[in-house]
Every structure is written in structure tokens, then in C-alpha cells.
């Protein structure tokens, strides 16, 4: 199976974009405290973590189709691999977030400069009032599918960034069936399923009965998955599928984040170069190497799940403990220094958790999947 360094690097850039945005929220240096100008708009861009997550979702659509085209396996084997890839680090991050909740409250709600303090207090109150409902939904990783009107803050309780993992899990569960239909040799099936999906996408975007704090319900984010899926279809050797992939991505664009599309388009050109589909001039290739093929970016990309899930618990631990130690007298300057130190500490922490949790459980998932795949063959003798 071909490994795209550019895709791994893109994950790194997006994960760290989210971390930096949250670091600004916690330290209080958001764009809101600066007059319009270069700094104001630069910080506003850094705080646009939603674009980073939308780009993650595009990547996920690309990668899941790539995996399915590269590895023939049954649904049971596939879902075991996916579950073992994301559940272990998610459950550990979730447990940490729950245990560290008092420190989270100290770090995120006791100081006037922290962004969205009132919302955070209300969210924690909802967690405590409906703890078991939220816990059940998180353990099934379906918390992102539930609208605010049914359970307030369902997608963002305990560990807010984990809303996107719920979205990923929703996609993983239906991906083999959806992609099989979209890859069908029969054009009527391909276009028919795409049309049904787009009708549902439009219905969920335009309805006014239910709302979600994040686009964490599958049909709200399916257009971004479709852009990634269309990109991978374009890399096949099937001309009809290439055309369909372009159409699928194009009709999804009205429901997407335009900045995420621009970022993906840039990196997709790098993917085309990496796939030997195009050849670019040397200066451009040098830029690609700097942005997408350097060892640091690839290294950070491998650990992006850990970085994405654990930075809030780490911020809570460091600033919460310091706040208690200083008896609530922490200054914004002290908080800023601690946020910087914590942000840098995410690199070794992510390395440790990737090496000790993510990679071993992922390998275990592969072994379990192979064992299941071998059962029919062995039982037939």
C-alpha cells in the first residue's frame, strides 16, 4: 500500500493549528483584544480551528478509500482495525479529561482573560447534571450525532476536540457500504447513491428543528468526506471513476469550508506529484519538500491523534495545578509562559503516547483482524 508523506504532514499541520488556536484561547491573546490589522487577522486565522478539522475530514475520506482499495477485507476485519486505531487513545484521553475536571475548571474558568468562560461553566454543569447520558454516548463514540435539543453540549462535553472522533466513527461504520456503492461499476448506482446523499446533506443543512454545536453529525460533514473520496477516485486508472470523483467533489463544494478546500487543493497537487501523476518545476518541488516531505512534519503527523486529543488535558494539568498552587493569583503573563511550555511539551508527550498506546493497539487490531479473516479458511478444512 502506497504511503503518502504529504498526507501525514498535512495531519501534523492541522493538529498543531488546533493546538495553537486553543493555546491562544487559554492565554487570552485572541484576535478580539487587538485592533484590526495584521496581528488581528493573523490571530483570527490561527483561531479558526474548524478549518483544520474540516481538512482532517477531507483527509479521512481520502485515506479510508485508499485503505479499501489497497486491502481487501471483510467488514468485521475493517471495523476492528478502525476501532483499535482510535478507541484506545480516545478512551485514555477521555478518562484523563474526567479525572482532571477540577483542574480544567481552575485553568479555564477562574481567570478573566480565558475565552468563553461562561460557556465552559455551563457545559461542565450540563456534564454533571447528565453525566451517565454523556458517558454512554462517549463510550459508544456517538456523542457527536446527538443534537443540542436532545442533550445540550452532547458533542463537546468532557473533551471538546473529541467531537470530530465521533464524526469519524460515524463515517467508519458506514464507509464500506457507502464506498462500495460509490465505486460501483453501474453508473446508475454511483450517481443514484450520490444524489440521495446530497439530498440528505441539503436537508440536514437547511432544516431548522435541530442544531449541533459542531458539524459532528455525519450528514453535516459528509461533503468534506466526499471531497477527499473524490480526490482518491481521481488517482485510480478508471476514467469513468475519475470523472465521477471530480463531479462528487464539485457538487459537495457549496456545503464545505472554502479555506479547507484551498488547503486540500494545495496538498492534493503535492499528492499528484508524489504519485508521479504530474511533474512540477524544481522551485515548487523544493517548496513541497519543505512543507510536506520533511521528516519533522511526517513525524508529527504520525502522532497527530495524540496531539489533538491530549493537549486540553495537558493544559488543564499544568495551568490548573499552578493556579491552585498560587491560590488563584496567577497572572496572564504566567499563564502565557505555562501555555508555551505545555505546547512544546506536547511533542514528547505525543511521541510517548503514540509509541506506547496508538501504535501497539493499532498493531493488535491488525493481528485480531487477521485472526478473524483466517477463521473461515481454517474451518473449511
From TrEMBL:
TM region(s), chain numbering: 12-31, 51-70, 82-104, 158-181, 188-206, 212-231, 243-272, 308-325, 337-357
Occurrences of domain Acyltransferase (ranges): 5-352
One GO MF term attached to the UniProt entry: acyltransferase activity, transferring groups other than amino-acyl groups
A single GO BP: polysaccharide biosynthetic process
Superkingdom classification of source: Bacteria
Record has rRNA processing as a keyword: no
GO cellular component, one term: membrane
PANTHER family assigned: ACETYLTRANSFERASE (PTHR23028), ACYL_TRANSF_3 DOMAIN-CONTAINING PROTEIN (PTHR23028:SF53)
This protein's name: Acyltransferase
UniProtKB keywords: Acyltransferase, Membrane, Transferase, Transmembrane, Transmembrane helix
UniProt keyword Membrane present: yes
